[in-house]
């Protein structure tokens, strides 16, 4: 029954409610696929099949009694390894956390369970969630289902692989540097980075950490845009700290046809070269969107200096992730900064300075961010969305040598720094905006390409609605051929 394995979560939940398939039967279908296909992919790295089967039986009994437990009743799903699940390890790919077993579920896990999901496993991540590849010394390397010699992206690379290969019905990940958007693009699935602050990340943190990191969000990966919206509804709610007095009510999308939308298109920027194969694929989709009647401009932009915007992003990103460093790493960063030339503006120099910046400097950069947010708000007064790449290329080969900032990728026949791709992560991320990645088709080399759809703050439903219209009009997810059986 391979076709069923590639259905979206909403379709799977409907099939269960209509008694076309049982909860336990569907779970066993995915567990069988994990047994057969995961050895080549290494996407699902922790499982508790027994507990999941018990949960599926309970849900089958509830349905037989006429009770539906939420919109995901009986849908088998996985979650990123960095989310706590009671009784399972949460390592973030770090050997020094290999014995860290969670005592309770992350808040998002609780919310998915309350919506009826059957969570049966956790998916692989890079060390400390800090790469667009997915490998670590605890669980090993995850491969891209479209080509095992390529990386699946990161840091939610295991989850995107599981979704693309039909190993799970739904996945939840996190994103501070395109960690949902990049693997969705590399693997050909849908992903949504929510507006900052609308989905509590409690339980997605290093041990004993409660304070949410700046920029970082949690969000779903799926095989359909409709699934993204349902999953977003499940996790969109205040943190328990705020719940007594706060309510989140995301505005509905106001437009229902592609012809109703007015969108800007930005397929290149001086900060980062984009591979021609990817640009061609995205441009072909943009042309179809325009032919469907949408108002499309490839010249409009927010009134910001993109070079400075990217510098603000790198500073705030690395300030946020500096909280994950060990004492030894912090000491090395301080030593590195002491030896930097004051005129050194390389990514490495920006990284080290951000890792050690003073609180006063952080406040200054944060103020710059507020002005950028205002410019974006002005742009969205005239345009509904901005369309752009999710990365500079399609999936790239595995490369585990050295540090990330020392590596290169191949773009248009020459090598460029891997970290250049962070531009497309930070362009919307630093200003807290929602971004949906929708499959845009395949490149000339036969690799998936994803279109990034950026909307106004709290305009998550508009981003997802546009992705759904693209899916309905031109097609969406397609299974990688080697795993379609």
Quick gist of this model?
This protein is an alpha/beta fold and 485 residues long. Helix content is 37%, strand content 14%. The chain folds into two domains: 344 residues, Alpha-Beta Complex (Amidase signature (AS) enzymes); 71 residues.
Beta-strand percentage range: 5-15%
Radius of gyration: 21 Å
The CATH superfamily of the largest domain turns out to be Amidase signature (AS) domain
CATH architecture of the largest domain: Alpha-Beta Complex
Side-by-side strand order of the widest sheet: 1-3-2-6-8-7-14-15-11-9-10
Secondary structure tally, helices = 15
pLDDT < 50 stretches:
none
Q: Classify the secondary structure makeup into a structural class.
A: alpha/beta
Q: Quaternary arrangement of the chains shown?
A: single chain
CATH class of the largest domain: Alpha Beta
What do we call the CATH topology of the largest domain? Answer: Amidase signature (AS) enzymes
Largest sheet: number of strands, sense, barrel closure? 11 strands, mixed
How many beta-strand runs?
15
Helix proportion:
25-40%
Total tally of structural domains = 2
